[in-house]
Design brief:
mainly beta, OB fold (Dihydrolipoamide Acetyltransferase, E2P), 4 domains, elongated
């Protein structure tokens, strides 16, 4: 087979001879240069030695060999980081070789607002065009399904983190660090996340097939402002009951919380609106645990 048949892949070649700036490798019919800059540090080769290399086309349209073997190859998927964004062209991704690889705009979302940004992670493979140049190939839904594990009912309501592998107006698809395949309905996100963005949320449903529905909207207590959090944390320290309410004296509120009575009432009102507390006989109580996870 020709060396061009192995572009974007790993192949084993034989050291033919040493050159001024590296070694020429051969498959018996064609030679390719392994430049010293493309060799893992402290690599020493001898004539007729066999070596595994990754082949790609360099900026001068030459086949180039490297001993830096990327996880991402033609037919092999892996996680890789975005290192540059070029509007009108696409995003460039570091797969672990000297040359960054392009994911073209035709394979990205229509709206650039949800394009990946620098340091976002994508699960990708490589493809080779008719000119033997390699490009990024983003994982499709079936590929993510293949690497996913099934969630169980025990995973319901757990906090999760993951990366977006597909996004659309109707929702967002996420692969979590646990290995779950998840979907975020548009009603469960405040903004549409970027492709490749790391998101945090919680599991709100476990489907029969082991996939999960995720909400990116904070839990009620996580959405509180600073004053409401201060009051709620004090309430938790007192095992869910405190002798303060919207009827308390301003000086008592100021002494305990450092808040004006108006600010205290606003914060308390927010806690009640979020279903976290209730008032009774001049006291404030934490609601039952079930209300915290709804």
């Amino acid at each position: 087979m020709s060396l061009t048949d192995y572009i974007g892949q790993v192949t084993t070649l034989t050291v033919a001879r040493q050159a001024a700036f590296g070694y020429f490798l051969t498959n018996g019919e064609e030679d390719v240069l392994l430049h010293e800059n493309e060799m893992v540090e402290n690599t020493e080769l001898t004539e007729d030695q066999e070596i595994e290399v990754f082949l790609y086309i360099d900026s001068r349209d030459r086949i180039t060999a490297t001993t830096y073997i990327p996880e991402v190859q033609v037919g092999k998927y892996g996680w890789a980081k975005v290192v540059e964004v070029k509007p009108g062209i696409g995003v460039f991704i570091d797969i672990g070789i000297k040359k960054d690889v392009l994911l073209g705009e035709e394979d990205l979302p229509v709206h650039t607002s949800v394009w990946p940004t620098v340091d976002d992670l994508l699960y990708i493979s490589l493809r080779v065009n008719k000119n033997n140049r390699i490009y990024v190939k983003a994982a499709t839904d079936p590929i993510i399904t293949d690497i996913s594990i099934k969630a169980t009912s025990k995973d319901f309501n757990k906090n999760i983190q993951g990366h977006v592998y597909r996004t659309a107006k109707v929702g967002t698809w996420v692969y979590t660090v646990e290995g779950f395949k998840g979907f975020v309905h548009e009603s469960q996100r405040k903004v549409e996340p970027r492709l490749g963005e790391k998101v945090e949320g919680r599991i709100i449903d476990v489907k029969e097939d082991g996939t999960v529905n995720i909400s990116l909207i904070p839990r009620k207590q996580e959405a509180l402002d600073e004053d409401a959090n201060k009051i709620y944390e004090y309430l938790l320290l007192r095992n869910g009951a405190m002798p303060y309410s919207d009827k308390s004296m301003p000086e008592d509120i100021q002494e305990r919380f450092g808040l004006s009575k108006a600010a205290f009432k606003r914060a308390l009102g927010k806690l009640m609106k979020n279903g976290l507390v209730y008032q009774e006989d001049f006291w404030t109580y934490k609601k039952e645990e079930k209300n915290d996870v709804e």
